[in-house]
Design a protein that fits this description.
Distance between the termini: 47 Å
Largest sheet: 6 strands, antiparallel
Strand content: 25-35%
Helix content: 25-40%
Shape: globular
Order of helices and strands: HEEHHHEEEEEEHHEEE
Strand order of the largest sheet: 1-2-5-8-9-10
Number of helices: 6
Radius of gyration: 22 Å
């Protein structure tokens, strides 16, 4: 109600649009897809086609193995030789899904981390591309409503959530509120995970702060 003030839905707009697009695809019988609204908002459903094909091949192999076991056991191959000749069968991640990489907030040509999304959405907020310099200091485009100044404690905040709108909203909140807010919220909402990136004492370096992220859900690059 104050002159000069407005309500801007930019923090959740892309995520909300992705959720509606996903609903439409699902209604049309499309259940395996990865869609994004720019580089900061991603929504994944189902799994990659190569994963489905891989599972089909494994199912056929299992059927053949069962037939061999019921017949001449001398024809069953040595399990160790299969692992040695096909190492992927030994190290394959049991969790299917879509792989999404996170850019380095200070070095946009480098990847900082990688996430596996399984029927989840990912949103990232940061000042890696939208910023300006004033009197030798770098300012981002996301304002802290408590001070009126650009938030500057976090370089980027990435959130994994059930919906894209929620991931977008929380990534902005965690970017402004910082690590303590992210940890407090995620303790109360186990379905939410986050990765916050903060400046390091060493010039040009960053520190990673995973919150609620399981080992198989992400990895640093």
């Amino acid at each position: 109600a104050r002159p000069g003030m407005e309500l801007n839905l930019g923090a959740i707009g892309k995520g909300y649009a992705l959720d509606r697009a996903a609903d439409y695809l699902d209604s049309q019988g499309v259940h395996d897809f990865l869609i994004h609204g720019g580089a900061s908002s991603v929504l994944a459903r189902g799994e990659r086609s190569e994963v489905r094909g891989q599972r089909s091949d494994e199912s056929e192999q299992n059927s053949r193995d069962k037939e061999q076991k019921s017949g001449d056991k001398s024809q069953i191959p040595d399990p160790k030789s299969q692992i040695d000749s096909n190492p992927q069968s030994a190290i394959r991640n049991p969790q299917s899904g879509w792989l999404v990489a996170l850019k380095h907030p200070l070095k946009p040509d480098e990847r900082l981390a990688e996430f596996t999304l399984v029927n989840q959405a990912l949103g990232t907020s940061g000042s890696g591309t939208q910023f300006f310099h004033y009197q030798g200091k770098r300012y981002g485009h996301i304002l802290d409503p408590r001070t009126g100044w650009p938030a500057d404690k976090v370089l980027s905040a990435t959130v994994i959530a059930p919906t894209a709108a929620l991931a977008d909203a929380l990534s902005t909140a965690f970017y402004v509120g910082g690590i303590e807010l992210a940890e407090t919220y995620c303790r109360q909402h186990p379905e939410i995970a986050a990765l916050l990136v903060t400046p390091s004492a060493r010039s040009g370096k960053v520190e990673l702060h995973p919150v609620n992220l399981a080992p198989g859900q992400w990895r640093a690059l």
